[in-house]
Fold this sequence. Notes:
Blueprint: E1 16-19, E2 25-32, E3 37-42, H1 56-62, E4 64-69, H2 89-99, E5 105-110, H3 114-123, E6 128-134, H4 151-162, H5 164-180, H6 182-190, H7 195-202, H8 206-217, H9 223-233, E7 247-252, H10 260-269, E8 273-278, H11 290-297
Parallel strand pairs: 3-4, 3-5, 5-6, 6-7, 7-8
Antiparallel strand pairs: 1-2, 2-4
Amino acid sequence: MVAVANFTGAMAGPADVVRLADGRAVGVAEHGDRGGRPVFLLHGTPSSRLGFEVVDEPARARGVRVLCPDRPGIGRSDPAPVSSRVGDYAPELAALGDALRIDTFAVLGYSGGGPFALAAAALLPDRVHGVGLVAGVGPLDRPGARESLSKTDVVLLDLCERLPSVAGAVLRAMAAGTRRAPKTALRIFKTDLRQADRHAVEEDGQGLALMASFVEALRQGPGGVIDDYRIPAREWDFGLADVHLPVHIWQGDDDTVVPPERSEDLAEALPNAVLHRLPGEGHISILRRMGEVLDSVAP
């Protein structure tokens, strides 16, 4: 499990800082087989590279190398010079691949990482050979898409778009409270969860890892997290029809954060989607199925 001994801003888990060709730093947590087939696993929002230790064992067993990068301005990653559209992340991921001497790779988008994974699949066709979404978010400009998200995400998304200074103050306060009293923050977080996710955060040890990942996301302040909310909410600079690879969509039917109907809509809109419905799984407990997920994108 991720090391969560403190929430003071010191490194709270495994990380390497990778330097891109332009000198910028990218924080990356690595799991699985270091010599294995590479998969970039893109974190949710508001979150960071931390908290994916659950993928280590299934990745090792399959000879897969899982790399979890912080997006620009989050955790240990420097802000990007251009970061206003979802598609801007594709060259960032390509630059990270170059720095790590990885030519081709699969990409997984977990939760809020979904739009960025789809951007990589659409805009890096010569480099991305497999793509999957795990409880992933799709376009938010479709009718009902925002309203179906969790109440906390709806509020934060609205603030990040309309009142970013207020959003920054709220995020700072949330991080400070979580840092001082992570168990209390976890109890509040659990109130919106159903049985499968409650079990995951209570019994599987994912709860404090999630709290650590949230605090780490705000290491440099709220700017990166605010961008992570508002950039995918804008009209995307590519179409779902531009994603020609098969997209494996993994969705629990007990997810209260990204409801199943959103994945169903996304599967209908993508030209080549495979929807994997997981009865009884929620937004967090779905991470226990990462072995099956890896089999779909890095066979």
